[in-house]
């Protein structure tokens, strides 16, 4: 029996009015509600983590792209005018990658 099936079975028993181990029906209903809330929170948590992982991956790629550009600019061994052209080109490429 799955957890969901077990929870449904307990809910049915509560509705019929069965008293288990001296626990009041209200307490059982409260426990069922807590179990349902926990399940909802777990699903929400997993969705949130998935979204954050996707965002982290995108930021990692962006940071890697920027690092490559900074390294190219830092290691450039030409004159100032060529450096300026290279800077414009690389910055344009970096910004295009964000679209």
TrEMBL record:
What domain of life is recorded for the organism?
Bacteria
Descriptive protein name? Uncharacterized protein
Q: Which organism is it from?
A: Virgibacillus dokdonensis
